[in-house]
Amino acid sequence: DSGVTQTPKHLITATGQRVTLRCSPRSGDLSVYWYQQSLDQGLQFLIQYYNGEERAKGNILERFSAQQFPDLHSELNLSSLELGDSALYFCASSGGAAANSPLHFGNGTRLTVT
Amino acid sequence: AQSVTQLGSHVSVSEGALVLLRCNYSSSVPPYLFWYVQYPNQGLQLLLKYTTGATLVKGINGFEAEFKKSETSFHLTKPSAHMSDAAEYFCAQPHSGAGSYQLTFGKGTKLSVIP
User: Fold this and answer.
1) Is some CB atom of chain A closer than 8 A to the CB atom of B2?
2) Which of A31, A57, A105 is nearest residue B43 as measured by Cβ atoms?
3) DSSP-assigned beta bridge partners for residue A110
Protein backbone atom coordinates (compact mmCIF):
# COMPACT_ATOMS: atom_id res chain seq x y z
CA ASP A 1 0.00 0.00 0.00
CA SER A 2 1.59 3.26 -1.17
CA GLY A 3 -0.54 5.42 1.11
CA VAL A 4 -1.89 7.39 -1.87
CA THR A 5 -5.66 7.10 -2.27
CA GLN A 6 -7.50 7.79 -5.49
CA THR A 7 -11.24 7.84 -6.01
CA PRO A 8 -13.18 6.68 -7.86
CA LYS A 9 -11.47 3.55 -9.21
CA HIS A 10 -13.60 3.49 -12.33
CA LEU A 11 -15.55 6.17 -14.11
CA ILE A 12 -17.73 5.76 -17.20
CA THR A 13 -19.17 8.87 -18.76
CA ALA A 14 -20.30 10.29 -22.07
CA THR A 15 -18.60 12.67 -24.44
CA GLY A 16 -19.01 16.31 -23.53
CA GLN A 17 -19.36 15.62 -19.83
CA ARG A 18 -17.22 16.80 -16.93
CA VAL A 19 -15.69 14.63 -14.21
CA THR A 20 -13.60 15.15 -11.09
CA LEU A 21 -10.90 12.76 -9.93
CA ARG A 22 -9.74 12.93 -6.35
CA CYS A 23 -6.40 12.14 -4.74
CA SER A 24 -5.24 12.01 -1.13
CA PRO A 25 -1.44 11.98 -0.89
CA ARG A 26 0.63 10.02 1.61
CA SER A 27 0.60 11.53 5.05
CA GLY A 28 3.16 14.35 5.18
CA ASP A 29 3.80 14.53 1.44
CA LEU A 30 3.53 18.06 0.09
CA SER A 31 3.95 17.36 -3.64
CA VAL A 32 1.18 15.92 -5.76
CA TYR A 33 1.58 14.92 -9.39
CA TRP A 34 -1.01 13.85 -11.95
CA TYR A 35 -0.15 11.48 -14.79
CA GLN A 36 -2.17 10.07 -17.65
CA GLN A 37 -1.46 6.55 -18.90
CA SER A 38 -2.72 5.39 -22.27
CA LEU A 39 -1.66 2.63 -24.64
CA ASP A 40 -0.44 4.95 -27.36
CA GLN A 41 1.11 7.75 -25.27
CA GLY A 42 2.42 5.82 -22.27
CA LEU A 43 2.78 7.73 -19.00
CA GLN A 44 2.43 11.45 -19.54
CA PHE A 45 3.01 14.05 -16.85
CA LEU A 46 0.09 16.43 -16.55
CA ILE A 47 0.60 18.77 -13.63
CA GLN A 48 2.34 19.16 -10.27
CA TYR A 49 1.35 20.93 -7.08
CA TYR A 50 3.48 21.66 -4.06
CA ASN A 51 1.87 22.70 -0.80
CA GLY A 52 -1.15 24.16 -2.55
CA GLU A 53 0.70 25.97 -5.32
CA GLU A 54 0.97 24.89 -8.94
CA ARG A 55 4.62 24.07 -9.65
CA ALA A 56 4.78 22.71 -13.15
CA LYS A 57 2.62 21.86 -16.12
CA GLY A 58 3.23 19.09 -18.57
CA ASN A 59 1.07 17.86 -21.42
CA ILE A 60 -2.16 18.99 -19.83
CA LEU A 61 -5.01 20.06 -22.11
CA GLU A 62 -6.78 23.37 -21.55
CA ARG A 63 -9.98 21.39 -20.89
CA PHE A 64 -8.26 19.88 -17.85
CA SER A 65 -7.55 21.67 -14.61
CA ALA A 66 -6.42 20.74 -11.14
CA GLN A 67 -6.01 22.15 -7.69
CA GLN A 68 -4.52 21.22 -4.34
CA PHE A 69 -6.46 22.11 -1.23
CA PRO A 70 -5.19 23.26 2.20
CA ASP A 71 -5.47 19.70 3.52
CA LEU A 72 -3.18 18.72 0.59
CA HIS A 73 -5.66 16.54 -1.24
CA SER A 74 -5.91 17.25 -4.93
CA GLU A 75 -8.57 17.12 -7.60
CA LEU A 76 -8.20 16.80 -11.35
CA ASN A 77 -11.11 18.19 -13.34
CA LEU A 78 -11.67 16.98 -16.89
CA SER A 79 -14.29 18.78 -18.97
CA SER A 80 -15.79 18.59 -22.46
CA LEU A 81 -14.67 14.99 -22.48
CA GLU A 82 -13.70 13.31 -25.74
CA LEU A 83 -13.28 9.64 -26.60
CA GLY A 84 -9.52 10.14 -26.63
CA ASP A 85 -9.54 11.14 -22.97
CA SER A 86 -10.22 7.53 -22.01
CA ALA A 87 -7.18 6.48 -20.01
CA LEU A 88 -5.83 5.63 -16.59
CA TYR A 89 -5.18 8.71 -14.49
CA PHE A 90 -2.64 8.37 -11.72
CA CYS A 91 -1.91 10.58 -8.81
CA ALA A 92 1.48 10.39 -7.13
CA SER A 93 2.94 12.15 -4.15
CA SER A 94 6.41 12.82 -2.76
CA GLY A 95 7.83 14.44 0.30
CA GLY A 96 9.53 17.16 -1.68
CA ALA A 97 10.14 18.39 -5.18
CA ALA A 98 13.80 17.46 -5.43
CA ALA A 99 15.16 15.43 -8.31
CA ASN A 100 15.94 12.42 -6.13
CA SER A 101 12.53 12.29 -4.46
CA PRO A 102 10.76 9.09 -5.50
CA LEU A 103 7.09 9.23 -6.34
CA HIS A 104 4.49 7.10 -4.60
CA PHE A 105 1.58 6.23 -6.85
CA GLY A 106 -2.06 5.56 -6.18
CA ASN A 107 -3.88 2.75 -7.96
CA GLY A 108 -5.36 5.12 -10.49
CA THR A 109 -8.76 6.04 -11.83
CA ARG A 110 -9.78 4.33 -15.05
CA LEU A 111 -11.82 6.75 -17.13
CA THR A 112 -13.92 5.47 -20.00
CA VAL A 113 -15.59 8.02 -22.24
CA THR A 114 -18.36 6.60 -24.44
CA ALA B 1 14.54 17.28 -24.62
CA GLN B 2 15.32 14.65 -22.06
CA SER B 3 14.06 11.18 -22.83
CA VAL B 4 14.21 7.66 -21.51
CA THR B 5 14.40 4.79 -23.96
CA GLN B 6 13.43 1.27 -23.06
CA LEU B 7 14.47 -1.30 -25.63
CA GLY B 8 11.82 -3.94 -26.17
CA SER B 9 8.20 -3.31 -25.36
CA HIS B 10 7.76 -6.99 -24.51
CA VAL B 11 10.26 -9.47 -23.06
CA SER B 12 9.58 -13.15 -22.39
CA VAL B 13 11.77 -15.33 -20.19
CA SER B 14 11.46 -18.81 -18.76
CA GLU B 15 10.99 -19.25 -15.03
CA GLY B 16 14.43 -19.40 -13.44
CA ALA B 17 16.15 -17.60 -16.33
CA LEU B 18 17.97 -14.28 -16.20
CA VAL B 19 15.85 -11.16 -16.56
CA LEU B 20 17.42 -8.23 -18.41
CA LEU B 21 15.38 -5.11 -19.13
CA ARG B 22 17.18 -2.34 -20.95
CA CYS B 23 17.02 1.37 -20.28
CA ASN B 24 19.02 4.21 -21.81
CA TYR B 25 18.68 7.70 -20.44
CA SER B 26 19.55 11.09 -21.79
CA SER B 27 22.57 12.51 -20.07
CA SER B 28 21.50 14.96 -17.44
CA VAL B 29 22.57 16.65 -14.30
CA PRO B 30 21.82 15.27 -11.80
CA PRO B 31 21.90 11.66 -13.09
CA TYR B 32 19.14 10.31 -10.90
CA LEU B 33 17.34 7.25 -12.25
CA PHE B 34 14.46 5.09 -11.14
CA TRP B 35 12.85 1.76 -12.00
CA TYR B 36 9.17 1.23 -11.26
CA VAL B 37 7.01 -1.88 -11.61
CA GLN B 38 3.31 -1.96 -12.42
CA TYR B 39 1.28 -5.07 -11.70
CA PRO B 40 -2.08 -5.48 -13.44
CA ASN B 41 -4.73 -3.09 -12.18
CA GLN B 42 -2.32 -1.40 -9.82
CA GLY B 43 -0.30 1.76 -9.63
CA LEU B 44 3.45 2.02 -10.09
CA GLN B 45 5.67 0.80 -7.29
CA LEU B 46 9.26 1.89 -6.80
CA LEU B 47 11.72 -0.97 -7.44
CA LEU B 48 14.97 0.90 -6.97
CA LYS B 49 16.65 4.22 -7.49
CA TYR B 50 20.12 5.53 -8.29
CA THR B 51 21.07 8.86 -6.83
CA THR B 52 24.77 8.99 -5.98
CA GLY B 53 27.44 6.61 -4.78
CA ALA B 54 27.62 2.95 -5.72
CA THR B 55 26.70 2.35 -9.35
CA LEU B 56 25.17 -1.07 -8.64
CA VAL B 57 21.84 -0.51 -6.97
CA LYS B 58 19.85 -3.24 -5.26
CA GLY B 59 16.10 -3.05 -5.11
CA ILE B 60 13.15 -5.05 -3.91
CA ASN B 61 12.22 -8.56 -5.04
CA GLY B 62 15.81 -9.44 -5.98
CA PHE B 63 16.16 -6.85 -8.74
CA GLU B 64 19.22 -4.72 -9.28
CA ALA B 65 20.41 -2.16 -11.80
CA GLU B 66 23.77 -0.80 -12.79
CA PHE B 67 24.36 2.83 -13.66
CA LYS B 68 26.85 3.11 -16.55
CA LYS B 69 27.60 6.70 -17.40
CA SER B 70 29.78 5.85 -20.38
CA GLU B 71 26.89 3.98 -21.98
CA THR B 72 24.09 6.19 -20.56
CA SER B 73 22.43 2.97 -19.47
CA PHE B 74 20.60 1.77 -16.38
CA HIS B 75 19.60 -1.81 -17.19
CA LEU B 76 17.50 -3.82 -14.75
CA THR B 77 18.43 -7.41 -13.98
CA LYS B 78 17.35 -10.33 -11.86
CA PRO B 79 19.32 -13.60 -11.81
CA SER B 80 16.32 -15.93 -11.71
CA ALA B 81 12.83 -15.02 -12.90
CA HIS B 82 9.79 -15.96 -10.87
CA MET B 83 6.23 -16.17 -12.07
CA SER B 84 5.33 -13.31 -9.77
CA ASP B 85 7.72 -11.02 -11.71
CA ALA B 86 5.30 -10.84 -14.63
CA ALA B 87 4.44 -7.16 -14.82
CA GLU B 88 5.28 -3.99 -16.71
CA TYR B 89 8.50 -2.20 -15.84
CA PHE B 90 9.23 1.48 -16.32
CA CYS B 91 12.51 3.34 -16.26
CA ALA B 92 12.34 7.02 -15.31
CA GLN B 93 14.51 10.05 -14.83
CA PRO B 94 13.68 13.50 -13.50
CA HIS B 95 13.61 16.57 -15.66
CA SER B 96 13.38 20.11 -14.40
CA GLY B 97 10.59 22.55 -14.89
CA ALA B 98 9.81 25.78 -13.07
CA GLY B 99 12.29 25.12 -10.29
CA SER B 100 10.97 21.67 -9.62
CA TYR B 101 11.44 18.17 -10.98
CA GLN B 102 9.03 15.75 -12.60
CA LEU B 103 9.67 12.18 -13.64
CA THR B 104 9.80 11.33 -17.32
CA PHE B 105 9.02 7.68 -17.95
CA GLY B 106 10.05 5.31 -20.68
CA LYS B 107 7.36 3.53 -22.70
CA GLY B 108 7.59 0.48 -20.47
CA THR B 109 8.59 -3.15 -20.97
CA LYS B 110 6.06 -5.88 -20.31
CA LEU B 111 7.74 -8.93 -18.82
CA SER B 112 6.19 -12.34 -19.33
CA VAL B 113 7.48 -15.36 -17.40
CA ILE B 114 6.93 -18.75 -18.99
CA PRO B 115 6.55 -21.73 -16.65
Assistant:
1) no
2) A105
3) A10, A88
User: Which residues make Cβ contacts (< 8 Å) with residue B80, sequence separation at least 6?
Assistant: B16, B17, B18, B62
Please classify residue B110 by burial: count the beta carbons closer than 10 Å to its beta carbon, then call 0-12 exposed, 13-18 middle and 19+ buried: middle
SS3 call for A85: helix
Q: A105: which chain B residues are within 8 Å (Cβ-Cβ)?
A: 36, 43-45
A window 16-55, beta carbon within 8 A of B: 31, 33, 42-43, 45, 48, 50, 55
Neighbours of B42 (CB within 10 A): 14
Region A99-106: what's the mean pLDDT? 87
B90: chain A residues, CB-CB within 8 Å: 43
CA A81, A87, A88, A93 dihedral sign is: negative
B14-54, pLDDT tens digit by residue? 999 999 999 999 876 667 899 999 998 889 999 999 988 88
Find out whether B22 and B75 touch, Cβ atoms under 8 Å.
Answer: yes
